[in-house]
């Protein structure tokens, strides 16, 4: 499923991120393909906020639609 | 202050001096450490872009250079390119990291260590670690990374002396294990491990200057480094308990529209109360009325009167209605300074608390509609401080298209602090309903123009991807320091500009040019905007500085409707000379000229619509409702048009793919 379908509080594993540019940027923030992350918050129709340990990143909605995840 | 290239070739550098470079993620506290080491002032700022000017200073015989806050040195933007170039030529790097956010910050640390340069790590904000329910094994951290690690609390100057003393013993650390063997091969060719590293990470510019092809190991190297950093974290950071959850909860509330919008509204209301009512009313009443007009101006007139007659042309230029000695100082010190200081105080609080990226997340959805993403809110908000400075920070946006839209909207709809201050003062005198109407009209113009630009410019908005730093209580010393230095910078810049402006207007007045220009502009000011002819002076002054224009209106005793029309027009009207120059520099002659012309047309069109609707209305309150309806209506039509346009575009795209 895609990241935009996740619900608040759910944990998922990131399967794939489409663009190399985005992949390298999120690696620097601490999140990579294959890692377990938690959905900290969802802004209605807006960004999805992903949390790994204490690091939080906001993904714009249309970006979240392109990220493949599996629920844990 | 010196640019990055100057920094590399500092001429008066003693032959054996070392180049000490400060590096770190945004908001890690580099600038505070820099101030301590060099004793020289540098602006303490949260956002990349605002510290784009590189500061350098001396520490004994050595030179210390500050770099912009970055997450890595990978040429993703200007800041990273600048940081990269400075770090590559450093003798020692002091890497300031946020102890609470090691997972994020150590990525840069490890990248710097991988370049082979000697590194010292300042483990900053160590006092926050315990509050967050964490414990860090500093010794173990030193051992794994192979570099000196010194716990610090930079704002309280804790650990900084130890940091300074450790500089001579800095050494290279342990590089990420299992880096591709290609690294060694290229190191031989370039003679530098650092350059080789960036080449295998696919850095075009570094490869180019070594006459080599880039290698595509970026992701592989990044993943190895990430894995290594995660390993370091696992061995050195321990959760001891729950830590404070209040800031986490509040941080979340700021992002969700249901709670975030009311929080933003309350903050804006407090802003209005403090600046529009308390400062604009009481404080300015004292500084402008009592001090400047009551004591300063008569004193100046008396002093000048001894030398030249006050009604001579020199007397009028110096102390007349637009006197260089009277108006300049009364406006800048009496009227603007208290208001501007108030705005900078709030801006510094926003920056220091970590609220800005949360606003970006909250408003992302809205900005996508005007071709931007949430990140664009940062230059927009900074624009309320100073449009000129904010125009430079549009560099943090990722595409030319976004920079183009953002900079145009910034010049058009965002009033700068000085201007906003006077607007607040005018609104304070005409009432809250006009304030709401003013906000509504400006907001609708933002929506309409942004939506149209999103349709007209080729391409699509890019997606938001932003790091949410911890929400924290602003450090009051830091906030006051920032407010003070920014207000001081404003005064220093405003006084000569106002003096020149006052001089020009006085000369125009004495030679009759002013009357001529007023007549020339009469069809616009009197005919279209229904304003007294004298307001033309305010518009002419507004080209020099926008707040100058509004300040001119402030003394005119306009009716509430006239006041509303003029502040709307002046807000949309061309930005000040300094921002126009920056816009020309950032966007090029052709584009900037179109933008400049566009703001003239839009300002008078919108002002004209408001004025004409009021004059067509039966009474004032009927007029208010009509104006609101007209602008809301126009926005809705634009949005519908845009939706239809994007649907059609999507269908066309689909058809092309299918065929």
Automatic annotation (TrEMBL), chain A:
Pfam families, alphabetized: FeoA
Keyword Iron appears in the UniProt entry: yes
Gene3D superfamilies, sorted: 2.30.30.90
Regions annotated as coiled coil: none
This protein's record includes keyword Iron: yes
Gene Ontology MF terms in the entry: transition metal ion binding
Stretches assigned to the Ferrous iron transporter FeoA-like domain: 1-71
The protein's name: FeoA family protein
Native organism: Desulfofarcimen acetoxidans (strain ATCC 49208 / DSM 771 / KCTC 5769 / VKM B-1644 / 5575)
UniProtKB/TrEMBL annotation, chain B:
GO molecular function: ferrous iron transmembrane transporter activity; GTP binding; metal ion binding
UniProt keywords, alphabetically: Cell membrane, GTP-binding, Ion transport, Iron, Iron transport, Magnesium, Membrane, Metal-binding, Nucleotide-binding, Transmembrane, Transmembrane helix, Transport
GO cellular component, one term: plasma membrane
Residues that hold Mg(2+) according to the record: 35, 38-39
PROSITE patterns: G_FEOB (PS51711)
Residues spanning the membrane: 261-283, 303-324, 331-350, 370-393, 405-430, 436-457, 494-517, 563-584, 596-614, 626-646
Residue intervals of the FeoB-type G domain: 17-173
Residues the record lists as binding GTP: 24-31, 49-53, 66-69, 124-127
Membrane topology note: Multi-pass membrane protein
Pfam families from the UniProt entry: FeoB_C (PF07664), FeoB_N (PF02421), Gate (PF07670)
Chief location category: membrane
Location(s) in or outside the cell: Cell membrane
Assigned protein family: Belongs to the TRAFAC class TrmE-Era-EngA-EngB-Septin-like GTPase superfamily. FeoB GTPase (TC 9.A.8) family.
Function: Probable transporter of a GTP-driven Fe(2+) uptake system.
Protein name, per record: Ferrous iron transport protein B
Source organism (scientific name): Desulfofarcimen acetoxidans (strain ATCC 49208 / DSM 771 / KCTC 5769 / VKM B-1644 / 5575)
Native organism taxonomy: Bacteria, Bacillati, Bacillota, Clostridia, Eubacteriales
């Amino acid at each position: 499923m895609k990241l935009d379908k996740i619900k608040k509080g759910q944990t998922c594993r990131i399967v794939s991120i489409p663009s190399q540019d985005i992949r390298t940027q999120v690696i620097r923030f601490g999140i990579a393909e294959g890692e377990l992350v938690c959905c900290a918050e969802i802004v209605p129709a807006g960004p999805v906020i992903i949390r790994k340990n204490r690091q939080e990143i906001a993904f714009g909605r249309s970006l979240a639609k392109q990220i493949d995840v599996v629920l844990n | 202050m010196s640019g990055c290239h100057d920094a590399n070739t500092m001429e008066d550098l003693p032959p054996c001096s070392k180049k000490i470079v400060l590096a770190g993620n945004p908001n890690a506290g580099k600038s505070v450490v820099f101030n301590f080491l060099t004793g020289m002032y540098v602006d303490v700022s949260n956002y990349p872009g605002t510290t784009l000017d590189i500061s350098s200073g001396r520490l004994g015989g050595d030179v210390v250079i500050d770099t912009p806050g970055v997450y890595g040195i990978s040429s993703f933007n200007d800041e990273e390119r600048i940081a990269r170039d400075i770090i590559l030529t450093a003798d020692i790097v002091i890497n300031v990291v946020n102890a609470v956010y090691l997972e994020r910050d150590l990525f840069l640390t490890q990248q710097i260590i991988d370049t082979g340069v000697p590194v010292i790590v300042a483990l900053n904000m160590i006092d926050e670690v315990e509050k967050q329910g964490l414990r860090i094994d500093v010794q173990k951290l030193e051992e794994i990374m192979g570099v000196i690690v010194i716990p610090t609390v930079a704002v309280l100057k804790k650990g900084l002396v130890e940091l300074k003393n450790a500089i001579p013993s800095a050494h290279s650390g342990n590089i990420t294990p299992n880096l591709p063997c290609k690294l060694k091969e290229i190191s031989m060719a370039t003679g530098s491990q650092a350059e080789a590293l960036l080449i295998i990470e696919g850095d075009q510019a570094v490869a180019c200057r070594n006459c080599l092809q880039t290698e595509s190991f970026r992701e592989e190297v990044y993943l190895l480094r990430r894995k290594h950093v995660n390993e370091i974290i696992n061995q050195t950071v321990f959760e001891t308990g729950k830590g404070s959850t209040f800031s986490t909860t509040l941080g979340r509330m700021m992002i969700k529209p249901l709670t975030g919008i009311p929080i933003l509204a309350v903050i804006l209301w407090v802003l209005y109360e403090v600046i529009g009512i308390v400062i604009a009313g009481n404080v300015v009443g004292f500084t402008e009325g009592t001090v400047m007009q009551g004591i300063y101006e008569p004193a100046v007139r008396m002093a000048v009167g001894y030398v030249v007659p006050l009604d001579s042309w020199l007397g009028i230029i110096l102390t007349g209605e637009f006197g260089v000695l009277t108006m300049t100082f009364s406006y800048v010190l009496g009227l603007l300074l208290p208001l501007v200081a108030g705005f900078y105080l709030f801006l510094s609080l926003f920056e220091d608390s970590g609220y800005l990226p949360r606003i970006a997340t909250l408003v992302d959805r809205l900005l996508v509609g005007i071709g931007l993403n949430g990140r664009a809110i940062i230059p927009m908000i900074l624009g309320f401080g100073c449009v000129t400075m904010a125009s430079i920070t549009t560099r943090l946006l990722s595409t030319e298209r976004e920079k183009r839209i953002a900079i145009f909207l910034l010049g058009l709809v965002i009033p700068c602090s000085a201007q906003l201050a006077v607007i607040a003062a005018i609104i304070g005198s005409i009432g809250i309903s006009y304030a709401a109407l003013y906000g509504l009209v400006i907001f609708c113009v933002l929506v309409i123009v942004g939506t149209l630009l999103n349709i007209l410019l080729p391409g699509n908005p890019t997606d938001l991807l932003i790091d949410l730093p911890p929400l924290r209580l602003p450090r009051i010393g830091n906030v006051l320091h920032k407010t003070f230095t920014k207000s001081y910078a404003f005064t220093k810049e405003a006084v000569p500009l106002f003096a020149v402006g006052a001089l020009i207007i006085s000369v125009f007045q004495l030679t009759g040019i002013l009357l001529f220009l007023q007549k020339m502009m009469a069809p616009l000011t009197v005919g279209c905007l229904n304003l007294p002819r004298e307001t033309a002076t305010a518009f002419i002054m507004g080209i020099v500085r926008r707040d100058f224009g509004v300040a001119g209106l402030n003394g005119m005793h306009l009716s509430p409707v006239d006041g509303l029309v003029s502040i709307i027009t002046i807000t949309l009207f061309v930005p000040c000379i300094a921002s126009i120059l920056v816009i020309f520099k950032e966007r090029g002659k052709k584009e900037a000229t179109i933008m400049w012309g566009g703001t003239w047309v839009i300002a008078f069109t919108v002002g004209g619509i408001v004025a004409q609707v009021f004059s067509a209305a039966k009474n004032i309150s009927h007029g208010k409702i009509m104006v609101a309806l007209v602008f809301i209506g126009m926005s809705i039509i634009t949005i519908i048009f845009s939706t239809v346009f994007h649907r059609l575009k999507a269908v066309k795209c689909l058809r092309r793919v299918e065929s």
